[in-house]
Amino acid sequence: MTSDELFALLEAHPRTHLVLGRTPLVTAPRMRGALGPETPELYLKLDEETGFGLGGNKVRKLEHELGPTRVDGITHLITTGGPQSNHCRVTAAAAARLGLGCLLVINGDVPDPPTGNALLYEILGAKIRTVMSRAERNPAMEDEAKRIAKAGGQALIVPLGASTSLGALGYVRAAIEIHEQLPMTRDRDVNLFLASSSGGTLAGLMAGFALLDRPDIHLVAVSADVPADDLLDTASDLAVGALARLGQHERELETILPRVDVADDQVGKGYGIPTEASGEALDLFARSEGILVDPVYTAKAAAGMVAAVREGRFPAGDRIVFLHTGGHPALFA
Asked: Total domain count for the chain?
């Protein structure tokens, strides 16, 4: 399938335009030099520059989750995440843009005084309900939706991370961008590293590159918290759903699945807890390229990429792409 053909399928799904435009794909020559002479060509896909609400990957997914027909008649958005959730931050910003109320179900204590994303929730006017565990999040969102309905409103519940088959279409669109920015070259693989947790970003890329017929693409998802097998299962299910929305058969996924690896070796002591390797990677990105990664997601994915390069996993003729999915406010948490 060509880019134009896939783009036409996507255009059949209305979206609320939030992404400012195509995000850059840039070379990283100083980082490549710092990693050693055998390092393959290195690129950064800067999705922290999606722009809206301080950017990041959630913006692409929310464009579809909050499409015009889905928010028609809606008075409130409800979603969930941790105390420093990038998804909650962008959802709160989208609610403000659309003139809607916003209720965030946060598992864990919000810092007092608020910092990082938690401060931005407050600035953006979101209301907070805290719960003690992840298991309580969905029931709490349902309770809040019923409460709003009793008061005469209508809430739209946006699932964790906007990681749904619909939200994944945002990263089918991103796959088209990467496909056009880095065309296929015979006998040269593209090893694309990304942070992953709820699976929607990975799912969209899986579906997109399968339809674009890019056998050279090797997706490497580095988990921030979820066991690798569980994350791959979730992403695969979402990718199948995204393909179905585009009128494509799930067998298309078989062309990319052998080229997808999910790693959970950078999680360390747990979600949001920095490791020595993630701290080193954070410094490397900042001091070699002036690129800021966050300690929760992108620094751990960066650590996975650095480890793979140092272990010599890729031939010198390959190309490496690091998908920067944002998350800067966590640096100030």
From this structure: 2
Decide if 133 is inside a domain. Answer: yes
Q: What is residue 149's three-state secondary structure?
A: helix
Closest CA to 322 of 280, 300, 207: 300
Helices (H), the chain: 3-11, 29-35, 57-65, 68-71, 86-98, 116-123, 137-150, 169-181, 200-211, 228-245, 276-289, 298-310
Residue 247 belongs to what domain range?
3-56+164-332
Predicted confidence (pLDDT) per residue in 179-233, tens digit: 999 999 888 999 999 999 999 999 999 999 999 999 999 999 999 999 999 999 9
3-state DSSP assignment of residue 65: helix
- Chosen domain end from 122, 157, 192: 157
End-of-domain residue from the set 157, 191, 214: 157
- The SS3 assignment for 88 reads helix
Give the residue among 330, 315, 133 at the shortest CA–CA distance from 218: 315
- Please, what is the angle between helix 200-211 and helix 169-181, to 10°? 50
CATH number, domain with residue 327: 3.40.50.1100
86 and 226 part of one domain: no
Report d(CA 208, CA 196) in Å as an integer: 17
Active-site positions read 85
Strand order in the sheet with 217-223: 25-27, 41-46, 319-324, 190-196, 217-223, 260-263
Q: Is 190 helix (H, G, I), strand (E, B) or coil?
A: strand
Q: Take residue 109 and report the two structure tokens written for it.
A: 């204590």
* Structural Rg of the chain based on CA atoms: 19
Confidence of residue 249 (pLDDT cuts 50, 70, 90): confident
